[in-house]
Write a structure and sequence with these properties.
47% helix; 2 domains; 11 helices; Jelly Rolls
Length: 272
């Protein structure tokens, strides 16, 4: 397996329910290599960590702010106890003013705020978390207003600019993973995904394993089984229907793959 570990892809349904915004405080032990389809603002409130993004590493400490774009491939490795304020945003659902800031490539993706600004950011972050957990009549308007204020202040007050070059191969694999996720029900092949990525089968296969940590066939099977396990918990489809819905061409091959990866049969998983 690659030293970077297995690359995961995350989608957050909760963001779509909360007006395109999620706001949390994290105290991670480690976040493995992953990517997601929304913007993420990371504000280090305490501690220190190693942050790897698109093949480039840097140390982040208290007051550092990092803005991640959709499909940036990244991971966090705290070197001491670390507290991070996270704001995750779908630009399609947030206000136009927030979207303009996030989409403007002229703004730096990294910056640093001093202690007095951190106190203000902390208060805004806390207020936004409170609003998102409330059920008041003006929850949507308050969410939009606080998010706009928080994001605006971060862009306004970040001072240091660090240019990070993007490793194109990471972005290629992240996009390939998104393609796989969107086509799990289809009979997709390594050749098809490699062609969609603009590479030969051999080169893409080697690159995929180098970055993700496992080969294409195993990754595809694992993602299908993960989707199947979610569908099994919903109880709206039969097990046979689920096997075909996640891209297996026979129930027996689905059963074997599920048992191998989950340690129990699909039926046992559903009734556990």
């Amino acid at each position: 397996m690659s030293e970077m570990g297995m690359l995961k892809s995350y989608r957050d349904a909760q963001i779509t329910k909360d007006h395109g915004v999620r706001c949390v405080v994290n105290t991670p032990s480690e976040f493995p290599l992953h990517h997601h389809d929304y913007y993420e603002l990371e504000i280090v409130a305490e501690g220190e960590m190693l942050h790897e993004c698109n093949g480039k590493s840097m140390r982040l400490g208290k007051g550092d702010v990092y803005i991640l774009s959709p499909h940036d491939v990244h991971r966090l490795v705290p070197t001491q106890k670390t507290t991070i304020y996270n704001v995750c945003i779908y630009t399609e659902q947030c206000s136009k003013s927030i979207a303009r800031l996030l989409l403007d490539e002229e703004y730096p993706r990294f910056g640093r705020v001093d202690d007095s600004v951190m106190e203000e950011i902390s208060a805004l972050h806390s207020a936004l978390r409170d609003v998102l957990s409330s059920t008041g009549q003006y929850r949507g308007a308050r969410t939009s207003a606080l998010t706009t204020l928080l994001v605006s202040r971060l862009f306004e007050m970040t001072s240091a600019e660090i240019s990070l070059q993007t490793d194109q191969s990471y972005l290629t694999i992240a996009k390939a993973m998104s393609f796989i996720e969107a086509n799990l029900a289809n009979q997709i092949t390594l050749e098809e995904v490699a062609a969609a990525s603009g590479y030969s089968r051999t080169y893409f296969s080697r690159l995929f394993k180098e970055i993700v940590g496992i080969n294409f066939k195993y990754y595809l099977e694992r993602e299908r089984i993960e989707l199947a396990s979610d569908l099994l918990e919903m109880e709206e489809m039969s097990i046979t229907e689920i096997s075909y819905a996640v891209g297996f061409n026979s129930f027996s091959s689905f059963w074997r793959a599920f048992k191998k990866l989950k340690g129990v049969s699909p039926r046992e998983w559903r009734t556990r």
